[in-house]
Description:
The complex is a heterodimer of chains A (422) and B (293). Chain A has 422 residues and is α/β, with parallel strands linked by helices. Mean pLDDT of chain A is 88; it is low at 11-21. In chain A, strand 9 and strand 10 form a beta hairpin. In chain A, the strands form 4 sheets. In chain A, strands 7, 8, 11, 12, 13, 15 and 16 form a 7-stranded mixed β-sheet that branches. Chain A has a 5-stranded mixed β-sheet with strand order 2-1-3-14-6, with helices on one face. Chain A contains 18 helices and 16 strands. The N and C termini of chain A lie far apart (79 Å). By secondary structure, chain B is mainly α. Chain B contains 12 helices and 2 strands. Chain B has a two-stranded antiparallel ribbon. In chain B, a hairpin with a 7-residue loop joins strand 1 (40-41) and strand 2 (49-50). Classes of the chains: A alpha/beta (422), B mainly alpha (293). Chains A and B meet through helix 3, helix 4, helix 9, helix 11 and helix 17 of A and helix 11 of B.
Amino acid sequence: MRTSIWAAGALAFTGAFTMAAQAEETVVWWDFLGGGDGVRMKQMISDFNDAHAGEIKIDATTLEWGVPFYTKVQTSVAVGEAPDIMTYHASRIPLAIEQGVMSEITSDDWAAMGLGQADYAPSLWDAISSDGKTYAVPLDTHPVVLYVNKDILAKVDMLNEDGTPKGMDSREGFTNLLKTLKDSGEVRYPLATTTADGGFIFRTIYSLMGQQDGELMSDGGFLEGDNGEKLANALSVIQEWTVEEYQPAYTDYPAAVALFTTGEAAMMINGVWEVPTMVDLENDGKLFNWTAVELPVIFDHPSTYADSHTFAIPASDDMSPEKRAAVLEVISWISKNSLFWATAGHIPAYGPVTELDEYKEMQPNATYSVLTSNMIFDPKTPLAGVAGPIFDVMSTYFVPTLNGEMDATEAVEEITYELNDM
Amino acid sequence: MIRNTKKEALIALVLIAPFLAVYGLIFVYPTIDMFVLSFHKAPLIGQGEFVGIDNYERLPRDRRFNTALWNTAYFVVLSVIPGTFAALGIALGISRLSGRLQALVLALFFLPYILPVSVVYRIWEWTLNFQFGVGMYVFDAVGLERVPLFKVKTWFMPTVAAITIWWTSGFSILLFLAGLRAIPNEIYEAAALDNSGRWTTFRSVTWPLLWPVTALVLTIQLILQLKIFDQVYLFSQGGRPNDNMVMVYYIFQKAFQNNQGGRAAAIAVVLFLIVIIVSVLNYQLLRLAGRQK
């Protein structure tokens, strides 16, 4: 009895000693992941905390997505109250660099994390770089994909043997698919598109521009040369889908998802983050057979617009080396364990994870993840990115154009004028 | 008793000092800073370089600034006068009721006023949603073609103005009711003895005696609606924000989305001057109009 008390005392003593020598680092974390992916991130944070008990603890807060988040980051950095780590959209990095809110990720940092350029897709590495420096560590890419109701497509005989839709390789092919679906009378609409949300549909239109090698910004000017024409081409394709009633007019995000999940629309263009919605419905037995594939090739070659959730370290003058090491460990651990993050639909940015057998068995993730080699990102300007001013300009003219109220060429003229006027 | 004016002044100063300090810190200083900032090419936070009146010079050429200016004026026209008269009408109706029924009806009209703008947005966005809003089924029932009210330029401002009137008229109704109760009953009795009809009574008794309140409501509404932002911002989400641009939204876009603090400040200064000039003019005009009666 006496010995055990002594032993306990000694244990407590050594315990206190180690605690003092190696205090637990608390890493203050801000993210904007409020949806289904937020639930998964909380799980990962909790797993991280369990694996690093006594060493590192993440103190996480989820904030409002978009402009509110980025404004808060900017003000908090200015007054020295920034978090230790934050999530950031790759598309917003150029503005962040201009605002001076990000701390550079040095080659020593990359070495400490055990990550490097070879682990990421080249377009993605480019998106986090500026003037040869890197500013963030990509966690994922989240492109738009084409969701498909396999039951309906099978009925009209438009499904290949491997379960992918027919007609994905050309404009004629895809139009034929839409027409077949429309004429069959099996569905109200062949395709559900968010025609009421110009900011959202920017992703699809930019993808179609990429299929023609169009660029939004070149040499500091917007839509120079034949790029305007390419944008007009992209716009008129989607406008045609509305005019031919292949897709509903003035439909916003929730309505588009509802049209697809209730089987009133046979296909839907939406972000991969809706994958969990489908998986959950399927598990409840409330969904048809479905899959998700890369966007159809309407023009010359496959191309899909993507953005990326990254981790960044806010600029600060007083972060201790121990704290920085802890932050790097957080980023490294989450990146290497991002297989679970893939269940949120996102494609893990860290290459080795997508090489795992477990990932290759995940469906439909493995089907659409081939698009990683065809990804294009936002132009590198402080005006680009989610909830950025370019989105607003585009949205203003996309909505009337896609719903057949404005001519595509007229819209492009207006867009070019306004973009160059900012 | 001999008054020690010096001492009194000192005490007064001590008493108002806390207010002055706070007022100076969070209102006067930022306002001066805004004027200074408007002459700089500066980000939202941090130092910039002095560029003289560049930020002002480009405003007349700036197409979105013009949109913002005209939309703000249009919104004021659509909301201030109709809103004031709607409130007056409702107040006149409520004042004829009495007891619990009056309290109930007043509460019903006042209810929207206590809602935060986010809730107002949700209610109306869902009601008038082009695909599934209940309002659209009313359109169908009447045989009208559905209109995507928040996505079409022509309909956006009138719809938002109508919603704003629905939302904010509760407060004006209260002011009008207070004004109506302040009119002595004897005057109405005298008018009744003179065999005055309803319209004459309203025109010659209620309207002139209520005029100070009407002028106040108009002024409050005018200042409030010149600063329109929340509703336009929320209802524009995903739609056509740049066509629906209003002044405060433009300041927000320049400052927070584009990180152009100097240009945002210049627009803010212009709005500041407009609000001052318009409200002073408005109040003076209304006072003159009141005197002539």
